[in-house]
Amino acid sequence: MRSRSNSGVRLDYYQRIVHRLILAHQEPVTGLFPASNVNSHAWIRDNVYCILAVWGLSMAYKKIADQDEDRAKCYELEQSCVKLMRGLLMAMMNQKDKVEKFKMTQSPYDSLHAKYSSKNGLPVVEDGEWGHLQIDAVSLYLLILAQMTASGLQIVFSLDEVSFIQNLVFYIESAYSIPDYGIWERGDKTNHGEPELNASSIGMAKAALEAMNELDLFGARGGPASVIHVLADEAHKCQAVLQSMLPRESNSKELDSGLLCVIGFPAFAVDDAQLIHNTKDAILSRLQGKYGCKRFLRDGYRTPKEDPSRLYYERWELRMFENIECEWPLFFCYLILFHAFQNDKRSVQEYADRLEKIMVRSEDGTLLVPESYAVPQDLVGFEYQKPGSQLREVVGRCPFLWGQSLFILGRLLQEGFLAVGELDPLNRRLGAQKKPDVVVQVVIIAEDNEIRDKLAEHDLHVQTIAEVAPIEVQPARVLSHLYTYLGRNRKLGLSGRKSRDVGILSTSKLYSLKDRIFAFTPQFADLSRFYIASDNELMIDILKGEINFLKSAWDLLGRPLVTLVLKRIHLDQDKIPLAMIQTMRKLKSGYINGTRVMLGSLKDFLNTSAITDLSFLGSTEDGYPDRLHPDVQTYLDEHLLRSFSNRSTMNLRGGQLRPRTLRRRMSCKGAIKKTRSINVDSDNLGMEGPSPLTERRLSSVVPPPWLQANKQSHVSVFATTPEEGPSTPSLLLGNELVIRENIYPVDPHGQNRSAIDRRSEFVRQQEITVPKILIQRHRAETNFADTEVEELIAMLRETENLEEQGDILQYLVDTQGLDFNTAGLGFKNKSDDNASAVAGAGGMLEEGRVVTVRDLLKGLYEKACQQKLWGLVRHTAGMLGKRVEDLAKAVTDLLVRQKQVTVGMPPNNEHTITAPLPEGELRQLIHDAYGDDESTAMLTQELMVYLAMFIRTEPQLFHEMLRLRVGLIIQVMAKELSRTLNCDGEAASEHLLNLSPFEMKNLLYHILSGKEFAVSSVARGNLSIVSCKSSRVSKKSQIGLGDPEGEDALIATIDDRQGQWLRRRRLDGALNRVPRDFYSRVWTVLEKCQGLAIEGRVLQQSLTQEMTPGELKFALEVETALNQIPQPEYRQLVVEALMVLTLVTEHNMVPTLGGIIYVEHLVHKANQLFLEDQRKVQGDATLCCAKIKDGKEQQQAASGMLLCGGAAYICQHLYDSAPSGSYGTMTYMSRAVALVLDCVPKHGEMECAIS
């Protein structure tokens, strides 16, 4: 026998082990590994992990191949890898129809199977009989396929297989929004078969997408046709969602050891070193034991308490599994690899020693990795008492091939046979290293010479579209269309990419196609179909945001390139808007908002930009790879630079003026205003709809007349009593009695009408300006004959004022409907004969064309956009049923970052959105929630888009918020405006709806971040929101709405300083902000009492049996109970009361808190104590709630309104007290807890933990 170097001998030893433990089980026909000797099913995930040891060993042999037999061994091992990877590929290609269907439905029943028969690669269980949707398994396959290909193995043989793998990329690219069953095939941990969003799946998908991007599947011998393309934005979305989730795994699993494969080998999916560290520490501190790590908390699998006869668990039994979960040695193997890649030899050695102690020796002395260790049945009691104290026994397979394979890899690394770079030829492990600063290149192109010359006047020199040739500039939608050709394959029946979305990362590259070069403008510049795009300031703001986003997200070769075209539409009265000029000057200076930028022309940046080859557009399938696909050719020819012509807007002016009919004008005036449902005037924010639930809420809806008198000069007498419910109110106006009709069919009992109906009525009662006649929507016969409609349309022609046109059209829509034909009306009763000629000229009737109210509305909408009348724009957009382009995307962006969204006004009309919905359904849901109030429905869509922008760019604004309640946010925005402008609620909601989109986004930002702001008036009566650095500025509004003089002004200033804590509580309550770790602390309180009652909802103690403290599902339960409280400031006091209770439990003052605790009793008790103290010290509250009671006062309190207007019977001054200090709210809460709870001892000394 020839002498062999030591390393060769040692490798031969590993080769024997790999052969005996792993390769001996490989099926000769398919190349797959069965699960065990008795179970022939082959799981994708386990198979890929099994083969890693074989691949590692082949590379170790390649390095020392000093003899022919070593080369032969190396080749033999490599071919085993190829055989397995191709076996899995064949099994998946047999299910190609599923891949095609899944791109559309994303349904668990259409997913690829998670396991196949190892004998023939066919399916082994039906679609619905197993949790097949496991995105991490398909992603792991693609990731390892990419790594193996990069290491030199040839796994893919034909272009059809390339197309299939391109479609697998589409299959996983939306992983960030697809709930799946995850790495443990369970979904929700109760195992009831509910899929959920899993961080481990999203991380694996992100890794696979990055690894696959621009990879040639034929290796060094391939050409353009065998390259896989990934849209960088999809990988980035996965990354953003992953970063927002970690260290949480999913809604029901607050932590999972499976995340080790995402933060380390094989995925390396996290770029943030601190986040990697936090996730690993969380796993080690809560899941690590002597025998490995638990998979997740309360994992019942194979524990002695598990009932093996059924698959699922009852919710209450999860608590039994605490502290006795099985421990898996597999995770020690992951930790060894993790530290080996970090080059931390000490930790590698530590885990290697730990692993060695728990491995099982076979008869011939080989070390085997067992599947898991469980507590024996008879020792369970002792383990409960002292977790981690008992000896455990092996359960499950031994050797466990997944673990064994990783163990062998770890050994090869430890002994120096492999370098970490060989296991990661794509260098994914370097992702978390610091990158140099990105320079964003910006090119501005003028649509034509005229605009170029206008820019030159401001010393900004740009090229026109014609001058940048041969480079062609196209809108992003062209790129998204071209990408639909990617991955098409007739033989396999695959249709290419389905999603139409191309993000800023994709449009910031240049694209080459044969000898042409394309630049694409970003998608946000395409939004010409929606009104947000006609607000230049907002577009500039979005641009700044996108440039900032590129700075952090760009990781491709070359620099990002943003191309913008300045068009005619952007001009404001034929001038370039000032905001645009200022922004371009900033870009020219080289820095914008802290990002380095370069402004230049396209040809300057050709060499420094990323260029992608669009060669997949060739007709490869027809044998002409060099020729463009005929469909693409025609598409491009059609799209090449059509001139952007403005659509002509319809002329609403008639031929001649005629005397105005005043009576008719009155009947329409304010028609739009009457649809509004934002209510600010009632001091109890969110308590407008009288609900039949409690007398208390009911009575607070109708404010008593004496309160009304303070606000308005005239007294209104309501003909309603709380018992009747709001029937038709009659209002006293001077001496004239106006009976109003309702817009809504009146329901005599007031039971089943929505809160919206009642609310808008209530708003209307405070609107008394002109006697208005309201029309019932669904009215059989109209009050006015056709002649009235004639007069209206005649008026419509005359009036120049768009607001008036809006009111007339609103009225026409209410009476006649959107499709009412107005052609030829308004001319009949003219004496002269040239009516038809005038009609032709007036544009109302265009040669026999039908002109419906809808067409007139469209014309009005376009004019209002041009003139920037935003209130009218929002209203007409709502009536026309427009919807924000990115609405569904925006909602998904919020949901996947674990924020639920509610729309509608609380408490009765709130709808919660918990899962992504298609555009149409979303719009329907929003409009149902607001009834006839089109403006607020549009505003809701708009705000959702802004919230999604903020959560992408500034996720820190949303910390400790679980639900975003858009209805409440709108009310608080109006309330804030009414506070800053010193105006009443109706004026404030008008101001709110008239804010430009940019100012709206600005106001939302100030409310989210809690920054002080002031309002200043700009041209044309538009308002502008200004940040205040010092808190002095914000005291007096900067808008000239007749500033209160003298004494009033003084009061206003004092009030503002006083309302500070009330305002903070109101904002935090509306945004659902809670203190840090609030929900997990409430869990500890719940553990010590029988339940917590909040506003009629009881949180039962059994929730602690079912859910762990950090679980998102538990947080949502608490949140749902808190959301029953309609007034935001009252909600915040309840949160403070809960915090005091958590302090009581955390300092172990008492062993148990007793029965059900009524949290509101604590708040009311604190209020009583506060008022007693106020009487003693003669504080502010003696003016309202702490007055010495007499008969009249008693009656007033009974009617549900406090003199100071405090919500829910709590004095306004308590809401406005700081939390700390001897008169602070926390002090009163603590005293209330001591008085109300029976368990706190009443006598004797006690350590005060709260002081």
Number of strands: 31
Rg for CA atoms: 35 Å
Portion in beta strands: 5-15%
Number of helices: 46
Number of self-contained structural domains: 7
Q: What distance lies between the first and last C-alpha atoms, to the nearest angstrom?
A: 83 Å
Runs in which pLDDT lies below 50 for 5 or more consecutive residues are: 643-666, 682-785, 828-847, 1030-1055, 1190-1200
Major sheet size, sense and barrel closure: 5 strands, mixed
Structural class: alpha/beta
Helix content: 40-55%
- Kindly report the average pLDDT value: 81
Q: What is the approximate shape? A: globular
Question: Which key phrases capture this entry?
Answer:
single chain; alpha/beta; 43% helix; five-stranded mixed beta sheet; globular; four-stranded mixed beta sheet; 46 helices; 7 domains; 1251 residues
